[in-house]
């Protein structure tokens, strides 16, 4: 399994949450990258919680390199898209 497959699998397992909470998580990811991804575990109760926790921490710690910010923003948008469907 490659890195792209792993990320796609994580995206597929993002839980569907209420629309209002998804926008809150997006805003949190914009303010402090990774925070919305980590809180997703509390709102969604996902079976992949440890993986999402690791993604959130990687987003947070890679923030100084701008990668974490854009990845966190993308992840927040993905959370919103799944909630709006």
The number of strands is 0
Principal-axis shape equals globular
Query: What is the CA-CA span between the terminal residues?
Result: 28 Å
> Which structural category fits the helices and strands?
mainly alpha
Summarize model confidence as the mean pLDDT. Answer: 85
**Whole-number total of structural domains:** 1
Q: How many H/I helical runs?
A: 5
| Overall radius of gyration | 12 Å
Order of helices and strands: HHHHH
Low-pLDDT windows of residues: none
Strand content: under 5%
Largest sheet: none
Task: Write out key terms for the chains shown.
85 residues, mainly alpha
How would you sum up this structure, described in words?
With 85 residues, the protein is mostly helical. It has one domain (16-84). Helix content is 75%, strand content 0%. It has helices at residues 3-12, 19-31, 35-44, 49-61, 67-84. It is globular, with a radius of gyration of 12 Å. It starts with a helix and ends with a helix.
């Amino acid at each position: 399994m490659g890195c792209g497959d792993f990320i796609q699998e994580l995206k597929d397992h993002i839980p569907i949450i209420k629309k209002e909470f998804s926008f809150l998580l997006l805003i949190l990811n914009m303010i402090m990258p990774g925070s919305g991804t980590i809180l997703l575990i509390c709102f969604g109760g996902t079976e992949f919680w440890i993986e999402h926790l690791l993604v959130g921490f990687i987003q947070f710690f890679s923030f100084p390199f701008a990668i974490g910010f854009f990845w966190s923003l993308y992840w927040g948008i993905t959370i919103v898209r799944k909630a709006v469907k």
